[in-house]
Specification:
Blueprint: H1 2-33, E1 43-47, E2 55-57, E3 64-72, E4 83-88, E5 103-105, E6 115-116, E7 122-123, E8 128-135, E9 145-167, E10 184-185, E11 188-190, E12 195-204, E13 209-218, E14 223-225, E15 240-246, E16 252-255, E17 264-268, E18 273-281, E19 288-311
Parallel strand pairs: 2-19
Antiparallel strand pairs: 1-3, 3-8, 4-5, 4-9, 6-7, 9-11, 9-19, 10-12, 12-13, 13-18, 14-19, 15-17, 15-19, 16-18
């Protein structure tokens, strides 16, 4: 009896393993449909090892560099002229440097994106370093002094999102045998970026119209600004994103946009998000999937901090 029970358990275990393997293969197939790696970040920003160091000495006895290490973990290439790196927290007079030394508007090379090839393999880029070299605290201290070194990075970025809308000859038909269904929440794929398109829903709106409802959401840890603004202190450019939607069916009109047309303009995020509504006119005699592409352009600002201890030399 015990042997029979053990045999049954072994069979169940083998069947479970086989089912898991099949599920894994199906997941892999589905993953190949997604053109993006995904993720909720653009640049990963870090200081280089020992640059700046944890501590230095006064009276010009300890020269050092600041290395800002940039790795593009998202999926939008960043052109070199669209990167601005600013070092704050250090008094330029203490280091005999002009203020302009601590600002690099434009860097030496483009920052290439992470991407997925046609086989689904993730291709990662190399790191980019922005260096502020030859710093040396020149003054004489009466005691140790600690300051904060901050690197502010502003860069122009892009989010792409794709989904499939359903075009039906009979929009109101509830037939389950059709190639697609108009009503329901649709899967939307986002490129890796701190701004995402979320909750894409398609609904019938009469006999010859389809409604799209979706949300643009800020999911990153930094601040978003209108593209080309260079992350200004002026808040009029903050939370302002350029929006564009493309569809193979021409009669597509969207509401919730400013300074543009029915398919392209600016979106203002409120509390980190904004809902967009679009209406698609359709007079098709066929049922088919309509590939919809949404592109979001913006400037994005992030920062990192590190304490620097400046010690009085004996």
């Amino acid at each position: 009896m015990k042997k029979a029970i053990i045999l049954i358990l072994v069979v169940i275990s083998l069947l479970t393993m086989a089912q898991e393997c099949d599920t894994g293969n199906s997941g892999g197939d589905r993953d190949k449909i997604n053109p993006y790696v995904g993720g909720q970040a653009g640049l990963s920003i870090q200081f280089g090892d020992g640059a700046p160091p944890d501590e230095v000495f006064d009276r010009g006895q300890y020269p050092f560099d600041i290395d800002v290490k940039l790795l593009n973990v998202g999926e939008s290439d960043i052109r070199r002229e669209n990167v601005k790196v600013t070092i704050t927290g250090l008094n330029p007079n203490d280091f005999n440097k002009p203020e302009s030394f601590f600002i690099k508007s434009g860097i030496d090379e483009d920052i290439l994106a992470t991407y997925k090839d046609f086989e689904g393999n993730v291709i990662k880029p190399s790191e980019t370093f922005v260096t502020f070299s030859g710093l040396n605290f020149a003054d004489t201290l009466s005691g140790n002094f600690q300051t904060l070194v901050r690197a502010d990075v502003c860069y122009t970025y892009k989010t792409e999102a794709v989904t499939d809308g359903c075009i039906r000859k009979d929009v109101l038909s509830s037939s389950t045998n059709a190639v697609c269904q108009v009503s329901g929440v649709k899967t939307i794929y986002n490129s890796g970026a701190p701004i995402q398109v979320d909750k894409f829903e398609e609904l019938p709106s009469g006999t010859d119209k389809i409604r799209y409802l979706f949300t643009i959401k800020h999911v990153g840890s930094g601040n978003v600004f209108s593209p080309g603004s260079r992350c200004p202190v002026d808040r009029t450019a903050q939370n302002k994103i350029h929006f564009k939607i493309e569809s193979s069916v021409t009669d597509l009109l969207c509401s919730g946009l400013v300074e543009g047309t029915a398919k392209e303009g600016y979106v203002i995020l409120r509390d980190g998000e904004q809902t967009i509504r679009c209406v698609q006119q359709t007079t098709s005699q066929l049922d088919f999937l309509d590939r919809i592409k949404i592109t979001l352009d913006y400037d994005y600002g992030e920062s990192i901090d590190k304490n620097l201890l400046i010690k009085k030399s004996s």
